[in-house]
Amino acid sequence: MSQTQLKQQADDAADLNEVSLERKAALLSGQSQWQTRGDEQLGIPPMHMSDGPSGLRKQSDSGDNLGIGDSQPSTCFPAAVTMGMSWDPSLAEQMGRALGAEARALNVNVLLGPGLCMKRNPLCGRNFEYISEDPIHTGRMGAAIVRGIQANRIAACPKHFAANNQELRRMASNSVVDERTLRELYLTAFEIVIREAHPRALMTSYNRINGTYTNENMHLVHDILRGEWGFDGLVVSDWGGSRNIADGVRAGSTLEMPGAGMVPVRELVDAVEHGDLDEQFVNDRVAELARVARETQIEELAHDALPELPQAMIDEHNELAADLAAQCITLLRNDNKVLPLAAGSHIAVVGDLAGTPRFQGAGSSQVNATSSESLLHALTRTEGLTVMGYAQGYERDGKSHVRLIRQAAELCRNGYVDAIVVAVGLPESYESEGIDRQNMQIPRVQHELIDALARTGKPVIAVVYGGSAMKLPWVHKVQSILYAGLPGQGGSRAIASVIMGQTNPSGHLTETWPLKLVDVPNANIYPAKDVNAIYAEGPLVGYRYYETARQPVRYPFGFGLSYSTFEYSNLQVTEQGVTVTVSNVDGPDGATVVQLYVTAAPSGGIRIARELKGFAKVQVPAGESVEVSIPFDEYTFRHFDTTLGRWTVTRGQYSIAVGANAHDLPLQKVIFVSGDVAPEPYDARLGAYLEGAPQRANEQELEVLFGGREALRARLITDGITATDVSQSKSARARTTHYFTSDDPISDWRKSSNWIARSIAKRLHRKAYASLNTSGTPDLGACFVLYMTPHSLKKLTGGRLDEPMVDAIVDFANGRSWHGLCRFVRAAAANKRANKAMQRRLEK
Known about the structure:
This protein is α/β, with parallel strands linked by helices.
């Protein structure tokens, strides 16, 4: 923090000593769904917040937080799953600058993004919002996005802090993770972004970590975020993710969202007046909020306005969206160099996803795009290409339709057709915020279609859409595969440019594609069905597992082909970093990603075959060579020592490897590093972990991973869970008794002894998933409520519920119907009176 900022903070703190507690407390919770409270006398303007990982979703203050309602038109850029595949921070910063510019034009102060969570398992329904399975890659790309956003005097708000890796029961889940894995894998990306890009805000997640909700987690927010990393910005809860506002303020959380009326104000004032919270914590949080509100103040427009983007900006960003997507499209297969197609080619276009584009994910990241173009339309208007016809090929909902497949095959047998472009992948119903995928399959009817197309004898070019790894049993039946991810509104034009060779593909995968789901190290425990989500695989996630276990995969982390052929040579390693020569020995001008991996000296814990420690996207002209340098930095050799409670560097030999992906590393050398601790043999008690087989780890080995039986038990939520559940913690066993608390999701009410509570849960479940059979998409509103806890419901009802009313609702679910009903009526009347009383105190 600068001297000017320090002085301003000191002045703010002094001024706040003269301000009433009620006014200060009111500032620490929202005014409405998207707007914070302001205080004109204190010079604190209100702020408007908007979702925006890949495009701005600006809604009015009466809007929803799930992406269901209408929002202002804005540019839909490539989703994180696609943008990450560029491996180019400069492109990520361009996107960030465009997002920030649209935020300022639409009167948004805080843009909620980017998403920095690790891709722990391919089934996470929100993987499309996250950048990578690796923290170094995520941190570098995320930092670039933040720098771009904040160049417009907008606050970026990276999320979801932290270990938010499943959608099922996300408001009631407890991420149970050992400290070394937490630090090295799940927090490092956030650390890089905080230290290198200095975001003005950060969003905590819904889940608990090791028993404590993240928004109130002293270790996470106070000790690490604010203490070790020095973060001095705004910490905001996810919408409804604050469990106790006083505990949050004490831990270092600034703002509870969305607005919940006078209830959080009352709770905070009561905590101070009863001696449970020092008022200085309130002052500190208000000073943080004031600084961000002033730094991001937009004076040109009133906060209740819904302005439109200038047409010039719409046009410019539409072109940028296509340009960015073109640098992200990843070529996974290209037998016999079928791509690029020659000028004058005649093609057939097949697949519902080609006729009706899917270019973004569902949920809070879904934007009202300023433009939309199908792949069919983009190919039809591509110069040098003739589209001979289009066939739907399959129903979007996955139902088998022999007639559609037959029509597609007949079209492709046309003698004038030179090649087939077929669009396949995950439909909207398979992945979304609020739900996890059931498996790695794409709809079976798409497999049947590709089988039929392959039998025509024509070259098949498969364009694959979706937010995470998929099982592709037909991979050897097609000649080319382009993975588009979710490429944004310019994706169709980008794909067409790659198909015709106007763009030489340079995307590389940011997650491993396993051959099948059972190969995933946590396949048997993900997603956790009960409260405890045990990260029993430890650090063996993604390529760290597959390379350590020598498990064959479909495509390794970092994989991506090009129309050019690149060779690596002349690896030089010094204390400062590495240099390597990259040569384009065949093909046109092109770009590739040079990746640096390190194998560490033994430091106890679990052996990991290699870890990404740096990368560089490099352009290499045809027939030429380029020297590439990748420096070592503070993250290259460190590991977290749980005994010392700090980061250390082990003294010893480190293997340095450079190549095109995590598996293909042709150049390797060994370097000696003078660390601050002596090497330590791997812990033999870890057994199966040392064999790269976390799936086979027994109870004792799991306890060693967590530092002992008591250390593991201390991280678990055990209320209402049997002793067997704790001792055999990797299994998701059903509870033997069903006593509900305000932290249990409403979905659990299906086990209630109260038939009304059971009926509510069952009806919500039917409503949430019945639409999959009709519209092809889940009912996100019903999903959100189904997996909501009664306590989070209190935070999302605008002050209509308070703690006693929530307790009465839980009584009802626990079978005490009459008692709960009477208690609720009394509490409702008391809540109304208390809210009015606090409002009067505020107005004095």
